[in-house]
Amino acid sequence: MTAPARAAVRPGLVVVDKAGGMTSHDVVARVRRLVGTRKVGHAGTLDPMATGVLVLGVDRATRLLGHLMLTDKGYDATIRLGVATTTDDAEGEVTATTSAVGLDEATVRAVLGEFVGDLQQVPTAVSAIKVDGKRAYQRVRDGEQVELQPRAVTVHELVVHEVRHEGDTVDVDVSLRCTSGTYVRAIARDAGARLGVGGHLTALRRTAVGPYGLDVARTLDQLADDVVAGGVVLPIAEAARAAFPARDLDEQAAADVRVGRSLDLELAGTTAVFAPSGEFLALYEPRGPVARPVAVFV
């Protein structure tokens, strides 16, 4: 029996609901096979333990990813107080255990409330940050001691849903919205340290990357079912309108964009510009009295 013909894949984004146990590269490899092109990349990794929203770019939409990586993200997480690990999550080896029986809910909520706002955060040692050209996690695997410098991050909101005593430990379910580059594992680690009992993540689910949430995310199995119909990719024009302020241009301005010229436009920030036909042309940003191209996609 002949397999159904695969619809031509247009440039755009694929919003995946990643399963636990997979690396982000595993997901990229699977989507490459599904869409029939190697030109697939992702906008920020998710740890193997984590699930949830992973945004991938297909074809020339991969050039959008660097800009999407700068957007805010949302997470649901469970923090376990009373146990510290080498990776600040459940995949690491336990380094210390301290009874958290004496912690009361009000104290836990108060300490976690201190992690809202502008923070100087030391990333977890097994992060993907490069140290002298080598990923920090690889240095840790090679037996090296890694000390990372604090980084400025912002947690816009952290909501504590439930505080549960589980034997000698305390589990805390939280939701947060934060800037890109924030390590939720580091919040678990630092909250445990402030409470004097240690802490790590036992569950992490990314609920949003910029405007793309779980409501538009698809599991890999669902995406495989979508491929034949050509519905796996969010077209690049729709993706750009969802992620950035949009400006529709006349024919003359669109012609100027196609050759990378500046535009006599007032913009509030990075803006997606479109031809009269609705074709996505470029990202522009304000530079003095004019708007200049950040990236042209035609």
TrEMBL record:
Family: Belongs to the pseudouridine synthase TruB family. Type 1 subfamily.
Active-site residues, as the UniProt record annotates them: 47 (nucleophile)
Catalyses which reaction(s): uridine(55) in tRNA = pseudouridine(55) in tRNA
Chain's role: Responsible for synthesis of pseudouridine from uracil-55 in the psi GC loop of transfer RNAs.
Domain tRNA pseudouridylate synthase B C-terminal stretches: 185-227
Top-level EC class: isomerase
Record-given protein name: tRNA pseudouridine synthase B
GO molecular function, one term: tRNA pseudouridine(55) synthase activity
Keyword annotations from UniProtKB, A to Z: Isomerase, tRNA processing
EC number from the UniProt entry: 5.4.99.25
InterPro entries tied to this protein: PsdUridine_synth_cat_dom_sf, PsdUridine_synth_N, PUA-like_sf, PUA_sf, tRNA_psdUridine_synth_fam2_C, tRNA_psdUridine_synth_TruB, TruB_C
Pseudouridine synthase II N-terminal domain: residues covered: 32-184
Annotated tRNA pseudouridine synthase II TruB subfamily 2 C-terminal domain residues: 244-297
SUPFAM superfamilies: Pseudouridine synthase (SSF55120), PUA domain-like (SSF88697)
Origin superkingdom: Bacteria
